[in-house]
Amino acid sequence: MEYRAIALSQVDGAGGEPIARGLAERLAFGYLNEAVVAQVATDQGLDAATVADAERRRTLFERFAQATAMAGLDGIATGASLYEADQTDVILESIADAVRDAAERGDVVLVGHAASFACADRSDVLRVCVTAPFGSRVSRVATAQGIGEKDAAKVLRQSDAGRRSYLKRVYGVDRESPTDYDLVVNSDRLALDAAVDVILSLARTAHLER
Asked: Which of 55, 86, 128, 139 is most buried (CB neighbours < 10 A)?
């Protein structure tokens, strides 16, 4: 079996981007992250900011449901027209399609956009998750953004909640598991170069480089 691509997922503050760039450089592969957003924006006739925001927003149904709960009401009508009216779903599916298309072309490191889940049915895509303990992530985000650790922790909790919501909404994932990946890397234990070497070692056993 030969891997055609690497799908690298990460939680914020884990340092996945430099690892992904290191992999792309060592393999002479393309690096695809924000280019996915730009491509979908072009295809849908939207600006990139609108597409990027769609990955962070909840569906129209979810927003109305929450508003109703906060108002203390028993419920609202949930007809198909309400759900279908939300452009967010169309954008999110387009992002997933763009990721799958890139994996099909091969020779690429796919970063973010839940690429590992978009390519879950592809045995020729090496799925990697880069993570780190919450405390380490807080310190990194605080340093990178020049904010206090209390504010950094708040940012990460919101980010992690958004990630869970995204996986649930788009891929029906109730709880992310290590078994969703072929390899899980703790960047608190491995330095950048070591993490790249570990991933490459696995990739090369499947003759990914050609």
From this structure: 128
31-40 residue pLDDT tens: 876 555 455 4
| End-to-end Cα, the chain, rounded Å | 13
In the three-class reduction of DSSP (H, G, I as helix; E, B as strand; rest coil), residue 179 is classed as: helix
5-204 CATH, one of 1.10.520.10, 3.30.360.10, 3.40.50.300, 3.40.50.1100: 3.40.50.300
Contact in structure between 128 and 17 (CB atoms under 8 Å): no
Contact status, residue 59 vs residue 86, Cβ threshold 8 Å:
yes
Please identify which residue in the block is written with the tokens 């695809």.
32
> pTM (2 decimals)?
0.74
- Look up residue 191 and give its amino acid: A
Burial class (CB in 10 A: 0-12, 13-18, 19+), 24: buried
